[in-house]
């Protein structure tokens, strides 16, 4: 038997959205743009996952975020802003997001996609 051969990949899609700020910050959260909602809409319509989960330190805002939530059932899971891993300081936002991606897939399984990935056919 091949290792992991009987373990199905959960039908869950994960997205990660991070900003360099924490809840309670006085600065306004970044609005999500139109082009960033096209990917999740395509995932919902073509892959039809059991769940779509956004892992983020701040919930996105704006009219396009509201429109996305109207069309796509997306769960929100707060994930605190990562500042260190294995005792090493992380300063780059992209590196912080990398840690969250790996941790999320390790804990929950499924697949991770960037917001700009548009699904055209079922995987």
Q: Care to describe what's here?
A:
The structure is a single chain. This protein has 3 helices and 6 strands, in the order E-H-E-H-E-E-E-H-E. The protein has 123 residues and is α/β, with parallel strands linked by helices. Strand 4 and strand 5 form a beta hairpin. The longest helix is centred in the C-terminal third of the chain and has 16 residues, at 93-108. The protein is globular, with a radius of gyration of 16 Å. The two termini are 24 Å apart.
Summarize the biggest pleated sheet.
4 strands, parallel
**Which spans of ≥5 residues are poorly predicted at pLDDT below 50?**
none
**Based on CA inertia axes, which overall geometry fits?**
globular
Classification by helices and strands: alpha/beta
Mean pLDDT: 87
Cα separation of the termini: 24 Å
Strand order of the largest sheet: 3-2-1-6
Our count of helices gives: 3
Q: What is the number of strand segments?
A: 6
The fraction of residues assigned to DSSP E strands is 15-25%
The percentage helix is: 25-40%
SSE ordering: EHEHEEEHE
Radius of gyration: 16 Å
Detail the topology: elements first, then pairings.
Blueprint: E1 12-17, H1 35-47, E2 51-56, H2 63-71, E3 75-78, E4 84-85, E5 88-89, H3 93-108, E6 111-112
Keywords:
alpha/beta; 31% helix; four-stranded parallel beta sheet; 123 residues; single chain
Summarize this structure briefly.
This protein has 123 residues and is of the alpha/beta class. It has helices at 35-47, 63-71, 93-108; strands spanning 12-17, 51-56, 75-78, 84-85, 88-89, 111-112.
């Amino acid at each position: 038997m091949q290792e992991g051969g009987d373990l199905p990949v959960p039908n869950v899609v994960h997205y990660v959205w991070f900003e360099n700020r924490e809840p309670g910050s006085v600065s306004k959260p970044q609005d999500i743009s139109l082009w960033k909602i096209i990917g999740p809409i395509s995932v919902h319509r073509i892959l039809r996952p059991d769940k779509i989960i956004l892992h983020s330190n701040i919930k996105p805002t704006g009219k396009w975020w509201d429109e996305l939530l109207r069309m796509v059932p997306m769960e929100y899971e707060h994930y605190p802003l990562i500042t260190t891993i294995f005792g090493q300081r992380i300063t780059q936002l992209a590196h912080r997001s990398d840690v969250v991606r790996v941790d999320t897939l390790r804990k929950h399984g499924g697949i991770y996609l960037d917001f700009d990935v548009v699904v055209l056919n079922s995987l």
